[in-house]
Amino acid sequence: MTTETAIQNKPRKNALVMFIHKMGSPPWFYNFSGKLVPWLWAVFCSLAAWALYLGLFKAPADYLQGESFRIMYIHVPSAWMSMMIYTSMAIMGFIALVWRIRIVEVLAMSSAPVGAAFTFVALASGSLWGRPTWGTYWVWDARLTSELVLLFLYLGVIGLYNAIDEPRKAARAACLLAIVGAVNLPIIHYSVKWWNTLHQGSSISVTGGSNIDPSMLWPLLIMALAVKFYYGANLLTRARVRLLEQDKRKAWVRKVIGEDKS
Amino acid sequence: MLTASQINFERYFEPVFQPVNFELNSGELLLVTGANGCGKTTLIRVLADILHPTSGQIENQAAGMAYVGHYLGIKDDLSVLENLRFMRDFLGTSNRDCADVIRQVGLSRVAEQQARTLSAGQRKRCALARLLLSETELWLLDEPYSNLDLEGIELVDRILNDHLQSGGACVLATHGAHRPEWPATRDCFLVSGAVA
Amino acid sequence: MTREKSSASLSGAFYALLRRDLLLAFRRRTELLFPVIFLLVVVSLFPLGIGPGPQLLARIAPGVIWIAALLATVISLDGLFRSDFEDGTLEQFVISGHPLTLISLAKICAHWLVAGLPIVLLCPLLALWMNLPVESLGVLMLTLALGTPVLSLIGSIGVGLTISLKRGGQLLSLLVFPLYVPILIIATAAVMAASDGLPYTQFLGLLTAGLITSVTLAPFAAAAALKISLS
């Protein structure tokens, strides 16, 4: 394990550098994230429950869209997350490629399914929302179209990662693809937006009202915060499992599994 | 010219061979031996900078490298002469006459033929011709003797001797059926897997 | 590598590789025809599937021709690095010490000359089939001339990533089509604007910007992708 020897050789530096070095070592990361994960799940559950309560029971019905606007509390945070996770995956991908840090590779690759799931939720909820708003499940609205292209980008990253046998090579290839996708993402986003105005598809924007009532806004913001914890919790859980699987023949994993059994 | 310290390469999270250390100077030959599957090809590819070592340091001060591997990099649709001419123009370093090099490796008779018609041994000779054209200091040869007849083996030894005599260096991986004779030879015995 | 690479030796390598790729393509010239025939067949399917109404065909012509061009490009892309990867030539390129970026760029240029340029040259025939107004033909050709190099450039990244897979071709289309979206949108918008008698130069400007950006960035990404695929 090179990272461990690297720690031993380095003189004691400041706490942050030490922390980064330690995070590079799979057993240390496994233990540290193991302590963190239950808290993340707990924070997510309580925040989400609170936001849903406020959003579904406390917030008044929209005077234009009626009850159906409440889909927003799922749709909008998911759409935000889908973009954010892609960005964070690409940033981690860049770090992984340049500094060849295995943990970051694992984290980037564990982000992809979570992001793809959020994208899918955003698409599905958007299309359900479209039914009462536009009278049809699918409209080539700029937002939905961008999300659809984003889903394809996610599927490409996941597909490439799974197609290549050697895990580290697969991760590096998929990280590079994520970076290329991230460079293109703003271009895709704006060209789709602009394409939409050009073709005059639909003039109604789903999240129309700019001056939204605070009682309707707060649940949205809380939900947006909650899903960030969900991402953290899900990501770390996935990364831990992936590390265990990858290092299954290594001593530290045997120790972890042994401890779990006893 | 080439120094390797503690280099290692992992595949599927397992080290392919035990950490490798050596120092190679000009006029020296490094003979990489070991059982099948111990990672000779991997080591050569790491030294060639095709693979990135998982850990360890490589210091390479050679003026250019040339490599003969399992896949020889010969285009089937081009003739022997065209193949070599392309490589000469591509490398842009050699003033040597391609026909002369082809004669040296004994391929004059088939020089105009498309490479797809060549036998495995003839293809190897074609790769050796490219090696001569490259005019590089460090040669990385992965099983150069395979597929060659006795005369071909002598040819490899001859060009290797010339190369080393003129101050070049060479890393040669072989499973051990034939050993080149050279006074300044270092041995590197690869052992597969992690350190027990 | 400590050997100094002069710019003369780099351009020598670039042209040597370009020349070799064109020679190789010429030796296998029947294979060059496949993407072109594919393009013709795909475009001819649209009148058959939609009906020969000249008005409708003229309306969808830019989109149809451009989508057919995307498909034909992706079909031809797999050959971009495949043979050099499989016969070990790519390893020789890496060890030569020449930057892989330059090598990728030379190969992309060769690919465009044999796969992209025929599309540009064939588009008058396609426009005729699709009943595209003659006035917009020039714009269509311009968008193809500016856009198909971008397709080759972006595609080269996808090829670089999938080259080590036995069946990389199927995955390749998933990887590159989302990246082609902006080009498709801008190019078809330009042709449609021209058909409607609206100004279109700003679209051509955007395409040129896309071409310049991808020429500067894509070869680096393709080189990085190839390096990963070789490991």
Explain the overall architecture.
The complex is a heterotrimer of chains A (262), B (196) and C (231). By secondary structure, chain A is mostly helical. Chain A has helices at residues 2-9, 15-23, 26-58, 72-99, 102-134, 142-163, 167-199, 214-246, 251-261. Chain A has a domain at 70-205 and 212-239. In chain A, helix 5 (102-134) runs antiparallel to helix 8 (214-246). The longest helix of chain A has 33 residues, at 26-58. The model of chain A is unreliable at 1-11 and 201-206 (pLDDT under 50). With 196 residues, chain B is of the alpha/beta class. Helices cover 30% and strands 23% of the residues of chain B. In chain B, helix 2 (80-91) runs parallel beside helix 4 and helix 3 (98-104) crosses helix 4 (120-134). The model of chain B has no long low-confidence stretch (mean pLDDT 91). Chain C has 231 residues and is an all-alpha fold. Chain C has one domain (8-230). Chain C has helices spanning 7-27, 29-50, 54-77, 82-86, 89-95, 100-129, 134-162, 168-195, 201-230. In chain C, 51% of the residues are buried. Chains in contact: A-B, A-C, B-C. The interface between A and C is medium-sized, with 28 and 24 residues.
Quick summary of this structure?
The complex is a heterotrimer of chains A (262), B (196) and C (231). Chain A is 80% helix and 0% strand. By secondary structure, chain A is mainly α.
Question: Secondary-structure map with pairings?
Answer:
The complex is a heterotrimer of chains A (262), B (196) and C (231).
Chain A: H1 2-9, H2 15-23, H3 26-58, H4 72-99, H5 102-134, H6 142-163, H7 167-199, H8 214-246, H9 251-261
Chain B: E1 2-8, E2 10-11, E3 14-15, E4 20-24, E5 29-33, H1 40-47, E6 55-60, E7 65-68, H2 80-91, H3 98-104, H4 120-134, E8 138-142, H5 150-165, E9 169-173, E10 185-189
Parallel strand pairs in B: 5-9, 5-10, 7-8, 8-9
Antiparallel strand pairs in B: 1-4, 1-6, 2-3
Helix pairs in contact in B: 2-4, 3-4
Chain C: H1 7-27, H2 29-50, H3 54-77, H4 82-86, H5 89-95, H6 100-129, H7 134-162, H8 168-195, H9 201-230
